[in-house]
Backbone:
């Protein structure tokens, strides 16, 4: 097993704040097992299959079987893993120069024909809403291609994102679709044909300002920022005072390998005490995360979070416009936990977001082993 390279975790600035960083390796330092190629997944045509026309768990299993049937034994062994929560926890926001313990092959390991099935699987597991779900994923991959082009730094690129099946995709039993790389983690867990968890789910992007790459304009996290800003700017002075968290948060708390970092005590404005307008805007912000999941799963999750809204708290640190370094927003409910943090650029000038969605009862599908 490769070891983590150059990770620093520390308490930064004021208050309870966790910082994650990685040492830059430079353009000349090739990383074993990584290809630094532009996949341009948006340009890949979807496969023609007999798996059915509509996204469903059955179609997802069918597509997974089609992908597996065309792989060499070596590649299949990397893709199809036994189900364990220990491997499910091997996700990160780092690029490979900071974290090399992800499981599964990278996109660069597949042929164009195999990548067509990978794309179809990702589209079926996610929503197809603009700037959410699969579209957001595509834009985050484009961001890594942009960073490779701008910096020449080994490790960046869409080819260096991993996919794995933890447990065999089937109508019975437990399995997880694992997908992730720099600034992205997708963790959909299924049991007996039903999605039982869509978290941990990490999203980030650099650059944060709109950029053009792979033939399209990209701004994958603009909707999340705008939704948080709308909720905070709707607060009255009294509500804002209650929602203000002490200290400065330089990053999210419940990031990779920080499964126990969610505070036991809720802080901020209890939404039972907020106006209907604020409550509605907070639900809209939550939806920018939950709607990354396909419609069937998203409806059930949103119904749960809406039922728990009175006991959900909104907190923030920094500005209410959510557009400055160290601006931080948190939604903390009986089940839902969402964080959004703006921090300095690591590879290009400006600020960029780290954000995580967790579910206190359904992370890793509620499984512990």
Residues:
């Amino acid at each position: 097993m490769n070891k983590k390279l150059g990770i620093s975790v520390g308490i930064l600035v004021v208050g309870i704040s966790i910082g994650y960083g990685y040492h830059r390796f430079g353009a000349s330092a090739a990383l074993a097992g990584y290809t630094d190629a532009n996949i341009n997944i948006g340009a890949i045509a979807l496969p023609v299959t007999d798996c059915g026309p509509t996204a469903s768990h059955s179609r997802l299993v069918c597509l997974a079987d089609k992908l597996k049937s065309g792989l060499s034994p070596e590649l299949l062994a990397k893709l199809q893993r036994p189900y364990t929560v220990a491997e499910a926890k091997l996700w990160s926001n780092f690029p490979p120069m900071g974290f090399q313990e992800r499981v599964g092959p990278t996109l660069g390991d597949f042929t164009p024909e195999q990548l067509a099935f990978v794309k179809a699987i990702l589209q079926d597991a996610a929503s197809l809403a603009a700037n959410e779900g699969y579209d957001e994923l595509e834009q985050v991959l484009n961001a890594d291609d942009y960073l490779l082009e701008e910096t020449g730094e080994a490790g960046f690129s869409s080819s260096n994102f991993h996919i794995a099946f933890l447990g065999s995709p089937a109508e019975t039993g437990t399995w997880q679709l694992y997908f992730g790389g720099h600034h992205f983690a997708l963790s959909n867990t299924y049991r007996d044909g039903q999605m039982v968890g869509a978290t941990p789910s990490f999203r980030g992007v650099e650059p944060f300002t709109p950029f053009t790459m792979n033939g399209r304009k990209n701004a994958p996290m603009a909707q999340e920022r705008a939704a948080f800003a709308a909720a905070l700017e709707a607060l009255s002075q009294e509500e804002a005072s209650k929602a203000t968290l002490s200290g400065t948060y330089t990053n999210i708390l419940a990031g990779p390998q920080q499964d126990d970092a969610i505070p036991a005590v809720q802080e901020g404005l209890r939404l039972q005490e907020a106006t209907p307008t604020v409550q509605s805007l907070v639900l809209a912000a939550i939806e920018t995360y939950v709607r990354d999941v396909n419609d069937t799963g998203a409806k059930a999750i949103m119904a749960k979070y809406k039922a728990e809204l009175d006991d959900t708290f909104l907190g923030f640190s920094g500005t209410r416009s959510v557009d400055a370094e160290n601006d931080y927003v948190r939604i903390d409910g009986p089940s839902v936990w969402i964080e959004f943090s703006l921090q300095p650029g690591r590879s290009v000038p400006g600020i960029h977001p780290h954000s995580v969605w967790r579910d206190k009862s359904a992370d890793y599908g509620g499984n512990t082993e």
